[in-house]
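Attaching the record inline, Q. Sequence:
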Amino acid sequence: MHIRQLTLKSCGIPTSIWARLFILVALLEVLAIICIEGYVIKRTVDIYKSGTESLWGFGLQNASNSMTITQESFIVYDVIFIVAQLFLLMLCWEAVAHKNTIQIIAATLFNIMCLVYSLIQYTTFYIHPSASAGIFQKDNDMRILQATTMAVYSLCSVAFAVLTWELYQMFGWKTFKKLGANLALRRAYKWHQILLTLLKLDIFFFISYSVQLATLVLRVSDPETWVQIGVVIPGSVVFLVMAFWALRVENRRMMIVVIVCLGCSPAYFIYKLVRMNVGIDKNNDPYLDTRKYLTFFIVVTFALILVTVYVSVRCYRNFGIGLKEAIADYDTRKAQLKASRARRGSANDTANDSAFEYTDVHERFVLD
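Structure, as predicted:
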């Protein structure tokens, strides 16, 4: 039985130096952020061990607030950084492997959002520190780590921006040549790709917001906690999966449900913004240390939802013009070509690889 050698090309990474540099920057950033945030978590645990334990034995008592601040309240933010980097690596890998210029741009913008999030964290700790963040004020290692995180994101954002420009020109031209002359299909496919990318971002931001809300703000005795954990989080995932499916099979009824529900969801985020800032008891403020972070996620998610609704309507209007059939036809021919190449054997594949190279799944209309 023939086993093909695992190479960058077999993993879908093009031979272009720009594409491989894009993935390299993403990998280096992931390793750097994971190492930094891992050490931040260690420093947080050490600071709590050396601090004055509260009466409950699992956190520090805030002198100006009746709430107890646990180390988990800060570790959650560091975990979000790590998860965000893994999500970014997935975006970058998939975008480059599929020559998807839209997702390449989205990955670059996502990295900038991570930079903004790191700025918010540094501000909360050292520029305008919250009451509970005061326990980190005298720890110089923590300050250096926070500054290093911002520096890494800043440098990588510049690198991503430069590489995105190069990849956009390279992949954009190849896509233009391969998609054929059917302008209606090309426009429909563009909106199709934009919606797929937006739905991926929606999943990350909404789940991240919900996890922060459920773990840092809501309490076990609060019914909203269980609604958030048991209904909202899994419900949102199921709903967004429905959106993916409706787009794939061009199901009009399901897409209408998606558009209506997405259109109503901004009301929830407006309600949360009001609740976070109006009528809060200063002596028992559950949002004391999370208000900036939650506001950031609410604003980003709110904007993403509005754009998603608009793009969903555009995709709905393109249902029935032949896009689904063109994609299914290409998938069939691509599978047949892969099977044919597998039967030829490694020697022939190596000798004639360029002659049998097929276009990527995101450039489906080359055979039209």
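Strands lie at 59-61, 68-70. The radius of gyration is 24 Å.

More tomorrow.
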